């Protein structure tokens, strides 16, 4: 999303201007402690709350964590939390349902790694889809993806420009495979240039939209204190930017980013990537969007297991007119492309926080 990119450039320049930096922030211990409490694997026989913590570590739009959970007789349910909608960037709740799918997949992977079978279905009795997961005894699954859950992150930095091997591409493709979802890979320089132009066009449109910027700004966190207090949102250090007092971060965000800088950064991000994966479901409805989330989360975990980073560059699919043009470029004019993901190698950035499971049970 445009403004996250925006934030990166603006906060970095702002920090340089202000002489304030990540390393100089006095209180990151509390943040690091909170991360350590949340991001660890399960020991022994996991409870359902343990499995739900794994679910919360999933990717989700703007880190709004648009979910609540219900413990049932046979397992758990994942419900949409419509109070956490992002109605400007996501007016039809596409990202919200993709995020629920990501959470469901983490839970299923963690449960199966611990020898629990999962039967996943959609319950629409309440007038909207609820993901119902029934747990039963089974055999432990291969733990590769499970072990990657606490380590997976969205890495919004330039990558090293090196290609990913065909073996690794095959593993990514196999991990993402899911009925009803196609994943298209682009690794040629000319293709990446075209994707970059779509990203720049979408970024430009979003930056010109004050409602988009205002919505994004609501989810930005500049200080560790606010990040820990809220346990959600987009904390600047997770995008490679400095921690700042909230008042300063907000002013700098408003003041210093420019469309040109952001677009240049996005071009650089795409050009430095080994490739781009585009997720396209057969149909455009919540059930398919949940499946896209499940497919993407597996892709991201497999990438993490291979030491490959990924980040969303969804601008081409967030601006409706551009999305149609992008679908034509994909040669899928009658379908709705769901996610655009770049991947490649780079050092990790700081991890993002989640809200505690206890506060999410309904
Ligand atoms: C449906 C969906 C859409 C997303 N869109 C973007 C995006 O456009 N730009 C971006 O930088 N990150 C995007 N993200 C990544 C989230 O911001 C990220 O998952 C969240 O902040 C949590 O951080 P983590 O992935 O590092 O755990 C998206 C994630 C999902 C699931």
Describe this protein with a few key phrases.
single chain; 362 residues; alpha+beta; NADH Oxidase; four-stranded antiparallel β-sheet; 46% helix; binds flavin mononucleotide
What secondary-structure arrangement, pairings included, does this model have?
Blueprint lengths: L1 H17 L10 H10 L9 H9 L10 E5 L3 E6 L13 H20 L2 E8 L6 E8 L6 H5 L17 H11 L4 E6 L2 H19 L2 H9 L1 E2 L2 H7 L3 E2 L10 H11 L2 H13 L3 E7 L4 H20 L3 E4 L2 H4 L1 H10 L7 E8 L18
Parallel strand pairs: 6-7
Antiparallel strand pairs: 1-2, 2-4, 3-4, 5-8, 8-10, 9-10
The chain binds flavin mononucleotide.
Q: How would you concisely characterize the structure shown here?
A:
The chain is of the alpha+beta class and 362 residues long. It has helices spanning 2-18, 29-38, 48-56, 94-113, 144-148, 166-176, 189-207, 210-218, 224-230, 246-256, 259-271, 286-305, 315-318, 320-329, and strands at 67-71, 75-80, 116-123, 130-137, 181-186, 220-221, 234-235, 275-281, 309-312, 337-344. It has a single domain (2-198, 267-360), classed as NADH Oxidase.
Kindly describe this structure:
With 362 residues, the protein is α+β, with helices and mostly antiparallel strands. It has a single domain, classed as 3-Layer(aba) Sandwich (NADH Oxidase). The strands form three sheets. Strands 1-2-4-3 form a four-stranded antiparallel β-sheet, covered by helices on one side. It is globular. It starts with a helix and ends in an 18-residue tail after the last strand. Flavin mononucleotide (FMN) binds next to helix 4 and strand 9.
